[in-house]
Amino acid sequence: MCGIIGIASNKSVSINIINALKKLEYRGYDSAGIATVKISSQGLKGSLTCQRAQGKLENLVKLVDEKGAPGLLGIGHTRWATHGNPEQRNAHPHRDSSGSLAVVQNGIIENHSSLRKELQLQGVKFVSDTDTEVIPHLIARELDVLKSDNQTINFILYLKISRDIIQKRILGRIICEKCNRTFNEFKDKKQIEKHACEKKYLLKRKDDNKESIITRYDEYMNKTKPVLDFYSSRSYFYEINGNEKIEEISSKIEQILTV
Ligand SMILES: [Zn+2]
To answer: How far does residue 122's CA lie from ligand 1's centre (Å)?
Structure first.
């Protein structure tokens, strides 16, 4: 299982991201990474730093100590290999070709090979064997279209494009074993949570067996949720709900950054 954390704060976030990843170590991992954004006074014209290391979190800590990961916004990931060997180049976050946007992801992108082919035909060069890498390239391609139309990319537009891509292009099925209803893991978060059958252990990913579903649900409730609660109670953690209005997300993040 992967571990994922995203933090916006009015203080440097790299230490807290690494501490959160330590609390998620029980999920198992083969590599770890962090991406942070140092935002300039021009808003989005920040600079992105991405550090990734194979093996234990100590390797990532060493790298961050040596090379730094400055910024008030950041994401972190511990990876349990599904697509591609446990190597640094397959560790998350994954970036677009310009290195200006970074993505971490959990779950399986079922349509990743067709998306990869589509992007390769347009000249995109992939640097990892992961399914995840299609996401930053898809978002970057959309941003390039807007930029060539001379549109100004503000934070809200950026979030909207990212969500659109994830919800409309990325497919990861979760099936309810009881009623056979199918959800898209990357789109139907609220419906999955509210599903009438209620029992999350009935919701099955493509590669799941009964044991892994029960383990995932129990571990989420007993180990992952307390980590999320810890950070949200300190109000520098904010979980973005898939159906929430982009404007609200944007203003909440801005508030956190300037507290
Ligand atoms: Zn059901």
So the answer is: 40
197 CA from centroid of ligand 1 (Å): 4
pLDDT of residue 41: 59
Confidence of residue 102 (pLDDT cuts 50, 70, 90): very high
- Partners of residue 4 on adjacent β-strands: 77
Name the residue among 239, 177, 172 with its Cα closest to residue 214: 177
Cα–Cα distance measured from residue 11 to residue 206, given in angstroms and rounded to the nearest whole number:
40
CA dihedral (138, 257, 12, 227) in degrees, to 10, reads -80
Confidence band for 66, pLDDT divided at 50, 70 and 90: very high
φ, ψ dihedrals at 214, nearest 5°: -65, -45
CA 215 to chain CA mean position, Å: 22
The percent of residues above 70 in pLDDT, for the chain, comes to 85
Ligand 1 centroid distance, CA of 140 (Å)? 36
Q: What is the mean pLDDT of residues 31-45?
A: 79
The answer to whether residues 173 and 182 touch, using CB atoms and an 8 Å cutoff, is: yes
Structural domain containing residue 99: 3-258
Strand partners, 51: 34
Q: Find the 80 Cα to ligand 1 centroid distance in Å.
A: 28
Number of structural domains, the chain? Answer: 1
Q: What is the pTM of this model?
A: 0.87
Question: Mean pLDDT of all residues in the chain?
Answer: 85
CATH number assigned to the domain comprising residue 59: 3.60.20.10
- If DSSP states are collapsed to H, E and C, what string results for 182-203? EEECCCCHHHHHHCCCCCHHHE
